[in-house]
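Issue: ligand-bound run for zinc ion - logging full I/O for the record.

Environment: standard queue, default settings, no custom constraints.

Inputs:
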Amino acid sequence: MTSSSPGREALAYAASRLVRHSAELGPAPSLAAAGPEARLVLMAGEAMIVRAAPDGGTATALLVPDEAGSAGERAHEIFLGRAEGRPVFAAAVAAEAAEAFPAPAYRALDLRALAAEGAVEREEQGLLATAKSLLAWHARNGFCANCGHPTVIGAGGFRRECGSCGLHHFPRTDPVAIMLVRRGESCLLGRGRHFKPGMYSCLAGFIEPGETVEDAVRRETREETGIAVGAVAYHASQPWPFPASLMIGCVADALSEAIRTDPDELEDARWFTRAEVAAMIAGAHAEGLTVPPATAIAHLLMRGWVEGALDSAAAPNA
Ligand SMILES: [Zn+2]
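Outputs:
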């Protein structure tokens, strides 16, 4: 890989300066008791409140406690852990609360826009992904799945506890296999119906209970395109906080070539040569076809394949 190519350092949400509190560490400090050292991430609906840097430097979503006062009532105040020694909290407020943070001093950005713009430091993106996924989980898990009794926040926000049956509930992460399927000098890419026109990407799908990552790669590839897959090797992963996925990036060797697209899953799937994918990455494809941005793990897999970085990744686990 050449030094000018964006690699893993370009992946959104994949770096975090957060030292997590985690469920094992028990009780957490409260924001009220933490004092002015504390920092607070505020989610207004689906948007993060981001404070612009006064000198034109990098913005931040780590607000000081006094700034949060104008946001109104906060729901699900949780303790994420520490960043550079400071206690960091997160809380949800109503979408309208963003109006209390006017431009140009502040902006309200959803996490996709925030990552696409590089609006905050890369090491802050991972922290914000943790905040978004946890807050989304708390918003939907106010009642015990075992007995129906209301649950309360425990371990600072890394679990919920039922006061009736005593069960502890832990936030979920949804694993997704995403794969660069290759055969000789070609790779298999598809496009979903919701993709922007002309964009092709790696195949992907949720891993099911009781399934290995390797088998999920094989099953999803067969379901979506009819292609049989043999060896599968892990390459890289990326948190994807919409709301709580973990993208597990793999390279896989195809055993067949005839594509039968499942119209319910994909609009189209094709084999592409390295030269074609290189042109798509460069924005110079003859048909105007494109790939996802460098912030997405699909891009990392496609670029890695074009540049030969995946050539040695072939596990004998067929
Ligand atoms: Zn219960």
